[in-house]
Amino acid sequence: MITGIIGCGNIGTELALFMDKRKDFELKYLFDIDKDNSDNLTKKLKNSNPKFASFDSLIKNSELTIESADKEAVKKILKNKDLDKKNKKLLVMSTSGLFENISSLKKTKNCDIYLPSGAIAGLDAIKSVSGKISSLTLTTTKNPKGIANAPFILKNNINLKKIKNKKIIFQGKLKEAVVGFPKNINVAATLFLASKFNNIKIKIIADPKTKTNIHEIVCKGNFGNLTLIAENLPSKNPKTSYLAILSAIQVLKNINNKVKIGS
């Protein structure tokens, strides 16, 4: 499967290294706003020799496009004229970009779009009870390093270095969280897309003593109660859980699997 990756940072590199060991993926194209990132990624590969391509040509010539950049890249991808065609596939890591561009997502009829479960667990259960949910909350706890330089932090002049104990940084709605923490709260956008519940309550906690990224989901409805907790080790990038990368790798495996487990 001819593949292109948009975004050659930590996640893009890990996915490229996975595909480099496989015969069912042909990694041919890379794009990053900083060409040095794509060059550095290429140097780490043993079996693939992808070339740097423009944003548009990558989408046009790839059977599978992998987005591992940011929500702005997702917006551009969804509006690209060459995306929505049969036999095209798109894997999206920055799901907040889908949340903010729902209308464009709904217009996409032919391209298969894959959303990894990311850093949270239990999405199969959440999808199963969609339409029967009465309340849904997500509490995310991270080391302050994991939310450094987020727009909400900068706008409110929050000095994360002064936080010595667990502290609530944000409480609010999903839309506000996506704007304030675009690189930290993709899990919330994925949760919305799975649940289709419009009143998700988001809480973000900074804890200088934690070494893990913790996501706790509490979902209630006429089906009962679901409490789902994931304590994830960060990847090389403290903003990203290692589980998020592993879940994307599993999606890539599932694309070619004949037996698919889960709803």
Question: Which short descriptors sum up this protein?
Answer:
11 helices; Rossmann fold; 33% helix; alpha/beta; six-stranded parallel beta sheet; Dihydrodipicolinate Reductase, domain 2; 263 residues
Could you characterize the architecture of this molecule?
- With 263 residues, this protein is α/β, with parallel strands linked by helices.
- It folds into two domains: 2-114, NAD(P)-binding Rossmann-like Domain (Rossmann fold), CATH 3.40.50; 123-238, Dihydrodipicolinate Reductase, domain 2.
- 33% of the residues lie in helices and 25% in strands.
- It has helices spanning 10-20, 35-43, 55-61, 71-78, 96-99, 102-107, 123-128, 151-155, 174-180, 186-195, 242-255, and strands spanning 2-6, 26-31, 51-52, 64-67, 89-92, 112-114, 133-142, 167-173, 201-206, 213-221, 224-232.
- The strands form two sheets. Strands 3-2-1-4-5-6 form a six-stranded parallel beta sheet, with helices on both faces.
- Helix 2 (35-43) links the parallel strand 2 (26-31) and strand 3 (51-52).
- The radius of gyration is 18 Å and the shape is globular.
- The model has no long low-confidence stretch (mean pLDDT 95).
